[in-house]
Target: MFS transporter
Amino acid sequence: MALTSRPDSPPKTASLFSAIVIVASLGYFVDIYDLILFSIVRVKSLNELGITDAAAVTDQGLFLINMQMGGMLLGGILWGILGDKRGRLSVLFGSILLYSLANLANGFVQTIDQYAWLRLIAGVGLAGELGAGITLVSETLPKEKRGYGTMIVATVGVSGAMLAYWVGEALGWRNAYFVGGGLGLALLALRVGVYESGMFEQAKQAETERGNFLSLFTNAPRLARYLKCLLIGVPLWFVVGILITLAPEFGRELGITGEVTAGLGVFWCYFGLVFGDFASGTLSQVLRSRNRALQLFLVLCGLLCAVYLFVLRGASPTAFYTVCFVLGFTVGFWALFVTVAAEQFGTNLRATVATTAPNFARGSVVLLVPLFKGLAGLQVGGQPLGIIGSAAIIGLVSLLVAFWAVSTLPESYGKDLDYLEE
Model:
């Protein structure tokens, strides 16, 4: 269903460095800072809270990650619906306020229970930032420049992980949370004056229902598109949520010749992601195909997962972190994945999909973690499969399913987004 133009709606901007792109980029920067901060300070913060046994640190760390990701699942639905009903800007303001306040409170925690509930609340807040930002950028840039705009958002955004590492190492884990909360509150001031999407303003005048999450499940072709969008993002969170977050555990299992820390693993992975997001976004524009760019990066990711799990045994920490960097590059299709999700649906459901898709992909960690632990203890030939075998099985399945999902989705490069879902 096409939307008619309105003379008083904000025009599309031809500039890749408009206020909307800059604000969305900085918002995602702070979002990634907080999202990844726990993985960086996991061991130190749990040690200070009295959890010192290595197995307990792993178990409690996975529990807290699940709480954060569970919050993102809830927040993805909440902010997605709100983005289509009330507007993209309402999400950009509300989400950053919630996770900034939760971040500040995280710096004061004294118990695991307090830590867990605040990670849940922070997860709810973090869920809205990327989807709303990508939706707003996609709807305000000309279709020929959409890929470059979302590439900028992602490239700037994922570098927030590196700041999180530096701050966590220099100032300690509590101060790192305070800094994250302060950055978020400061960013609120920059959002004053940013205008709403013209497409959304037009959609408000139509009689079609907006933000109906359940409508994604009442139409078979629409549901198929939606599920395929979700599946594309799972490999990235297998890599970040398991291979990189549990880098110390994998380092010990692989017999790495020196100490491996989660903080450095995250730093190098996200450093690679910066270049990967730039490369995948640019490649999709050069090839004039989102799908072919995604397929290439999924193949590269599979190759690097194999290197991480089966080639690094007995290697040096330098070699291990080098592979983390290249592995990060290969999963640098995050913004491209969210862009594809946004481009697959009409204006009345676009924010709902663009917000829930990345958060359900992130939330897949909630399912991947117990599956990973269960498979690791599975007896094969009288011996446990172990974390290497478990990770190999989960990684292979998630990559194959994601490749199939990309290959069967309609190409969305250059698609006109000025329409409604009926």
User: Anything to note?
Assistant: The chain has a mean pLDDT of 87.
